[in-house]
Amino acid sequence: MNRAPRLLDVVTAHRRLRGRVRTTAVEASGPLSAESGAEVLIKWENQQVTGSFKARGALNTVDSLSEAERARGVVTASSGNHAQGLSWAAAAQGVPATIVVPETTPETKKAGARTLGAELIVRGSSYDDAEAHAWTLAEERGAVYVHSYDDPRIIAGQGTVALEALLEHPDLEAIVVPVGGGGLISGIAVAAKAISPQIRIIGIQPEVSAKFGASFAAGHRVDVPYRSSWADGLPGDIGELNLQVVLEHVDDFAAVSEDSIAEAVAWLARHHRQMIEGSGAVGVAAFQQGLLEDLRGKKVLTVATGGNIDADRFAAFLQR
């Protein structure tokens, strides 16, 4: 399947993953609702297998491989969470996995991939450097390259986040989604818009890496400079298939400051007793920065996408 996924693909993924990944909790946030004027719910994907939503798309993809493809093994590049998700999914099926990560990847994410049995290679200072090396390895080894976001099987798996939430809360009026390469927001948009066409889908990126927001505003792919972020899983390139889905289904983007990301991580720890990485806290940061005023009075879901944060960084955020 090289086309954009549809609701049927998300439903198929949901059935495939049932009982093998966690149906994560959705919790109403009284404090954030009071601050923002919206009825805010948070889906705790930090409690997912491997600590992030990435396990969904990874397992859906590995399950979709033929026996011959599984024997050849899988290769990917990742800023961390996809590395752990694919390592876990490959190990579950006995598939050899090689993961290439940039030097900036947090140690907790590197350790997670190694513990799950993947061959871990650290290469380059950015996700783009790691991805270039991973493609070369896949070609040299004849392995299957599993893209971390620009793959319809990945997108369909990530879309099960929205399907779960809407089965529990069919009256949601908006979903606020952290955005890196676009796999999660694409899957959520495909599922949510098919179920509830009036629902609003809003992507959140760090100000220092807002390539998707710029491309969305332009209506086509544009290049913008980007720097490292406290939301370390989000900076980098964007997917062509993801952009196609986003331009068709997503309503808006907003960009948050680095200070607001750190403050949101600490806020989530204090008010909800949840350890959330910077990438998973940008939705909360957007509310607290006053970027989502048009959602006042609406029932809104945001996704805390992962909890794989280094202890030293987490402690530093709490002391701010």
TrEMBL record:
Signal sequence: where?
A: none
Going by the entry's taxonomy, the superkingdom of the source organism is recorded as: Bacteria
Keywords carried by this UniProt record = Lyase, Pyridoxal phosphate
Coiled-coil stretches, from where to where? none
Query: What's the name of the protein?
Result: Threonine/serine dehydratase
Q: Does the keyword Metal-binding belong to this entry?
A: no
Q: Which InterPro entries does the UniProt entry name for this protein? A: Ser/Thr_Dehydratase, Ser/Thr_deHydtase_PyrdxlP-BS, TrpB-like_PALP, TrpB-like_PALP_sf
Query: Source species, please?
Result: Nesterenkonia aethiopica
* UniProt key word Lyase: yes
Q: Which residues form the Tryptophan synthase beta chain-like PALP domain?
A: 21-306
Q: Which cofactor does it need?
A: pyridoxal 5'-phosphate
